[in-house]
Amino acid sequence: MDEYKKIERSIIVRFRKEIYRKFMRAIQNYKLIEENDSIAVCISGGKDSFLLAKCMEEVQKHGKVKFDLKYICMDPGYNDKNRELILSNAKKMNINLNIFNTNIFDSVVNIDKNPCYLCARMRRGYLYSYAKDLGCNKIALGHHFDDVIETTLLSIIYGGEVNGMMPKLHSDNFKGLELIRPLYLVREKDIKDWVKYNNLTFLNCACHFTEKACNDINSSKRLKIKNLIHDLELDDKFIVNNIFKSMDNVNIDTVRCYKINDKRYNFMDKYDIIDKE
What we know:
Elements: H1 3-12, H2 16-29, E1 38-42, H3 47-62, E2 68-75, H4 80-92, E3 97-101, H5 104-108, H6 115-133, E4 138-140, H7 145-157, E5 168-170, E6 178-180, H8 188-197, H9 211-215, H10 221-235, H11 239-246, E7 257-260, E8 263-266, H12 268-276
Parallel strand pairs: 1-2, 1-4, 2-3, 4-6
Antiparallel strand pairs: 5-6, 7-8
């Protein structure tokens, strides 16, 4: 059996419960794929996006909904070694990859303030633009369950606000394009088990700015949050699910302020009115 077929089989047999069922549940619960969609699967070179590509391929082959897939990869300025790893993995996994070049790394190399934020914004813009040129109406990203709860805690602990990561979003700047996250319910540990089971090696951290951070656990806020969640989960295995479910159970009556479309609402605005009624 070809290696890529073994990899595909592992998703629907060995990791059916841990990965494929949760992948399908997210698609169904959040209506991520619809008839005649043209979806650009964005591959960064990491484990999550390559798994996403194979899951999307699987549901396209065997699902009832008919849709089109294009696999795209933006090279922001990778060195030759990292680019070759991405291309070799695409070949190994039988993925027809559309790779295009940008100079993002060079553009932000001299930025002192928030280079990572600027880099992320530029990446997203290039991906949307390329997907639009290909005729796609959706782009799929490889964010998983742990990304969702980590983002929630990051916003609370370091940002002083409650911000979630949505399973799908309409683009503000590219009309007619939608972002979807089909791995929304899949745990990262199960993705790592899938990688190990298939003896695969993916790109980890290729950014000039974060090479040191990726090797220094104390220099990354996200890594600190990962460790916090890990420690909490050792005491109570339901912790992560409770964090996730909390965003489905927001009691507005107990929230002092909240925003809808950038309009701010304060509980004091109606507090005395309600009392008089």
